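Deliverable D4.2, example record:
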Amino acid sequence: MRLTLFLDHQCNLACTYCYNGEKFPRPMPFEVACKAVDLVVKSDRPLKQVGFFGGEPMLRFDLIREITRYVRQRTAAYPVPVTLVVTSNSTLFTPERIEWLAANRFHLGVSIDGCPPAHDACRVRADRRGSHADVAAGITRALAAGLPVKSISVIDPANVHLLPDSLDHLLDLGLRQLSFNLNYEATWDDAARERFEVALHAFADRYAAAFRRGLRFKLNLLDSKIVTHLKGGFACSDRCDFGCEELAVSPAGRLYPCDRLIGMDDRDDVVIGTVHDGVDPARRDALIQAKNAILDECAECEYVMRCMHWCGCVNYAMTGSVGGVSGLLCWFEQALIAQADRVAEELYAEKNPAFLERFYGPVLE
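Output generated by the structure prediction step:
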């Protein structure tokens, strides 16, 4: 079970597209965190990962340290240590904090949208100043300490035209695990969609160019579509864990099937319990059934097995229902599949060693 603790609604940035709503101080009491850990430890699913989320979780660094000690105590008998993850904007990664995170074998997810103009278009401070310089400095510090770092980038109408340069920039920073995510809640009008199509084509070309340079890296946006081609679609194990193997906890102790659904902690329709009473199986199972149902209009689509129509949090953001699939999602998914297939065919025809190793296993000389 992956447990995500939403430590506070407060953040030191004011990103224009943040899906978590208003920023206000509501730190998670240590007792709530302990109850959440205990809830999973006592369940029939072993605790595999504890993530710290927000808001900006590094604003509550002392709480992270307290909870980490408690997790270590409660899982001391586990044969494999619990994985610890912080999802952060990295602006508060001081040398001392990086040293502690490295000593405790943390994995980091860092929010950076790409090259400076792409990042600073949306990830700003309250006074509208960009944050790229501080974010990049934090990433550099973390990489130098040997910490595993995954970049988390948001594609928005305001920065989509810079998507190709952003990929190059992140690779130049030394990042090798990249996650690009669309801002599905944005207004993607005809002009924005046209910019997306042009940028995505160039982005896929830069992706292929990186393989041709011999780089070993992972990039969710195109990798996942290539994998679905090879496997004939998403397997059940590829899909989100949504309440079964994933549990998110708000500062007030309410339980959600995904951390993206917490927001301001005012969405009663997607709450599946509390740390005090545990998970309500009926509520959880109803949400899972709703998100996994294939709509009639999707059933005959040639892309249905390669499409992320099953992502409950994306569906909720776009339609207000975990099972409601937006036509805009279909459009994005088809565009991604087309570009992934195009560059994959090129790289396979070239017998590119880095590409073949990434998707087919070690290449024998």
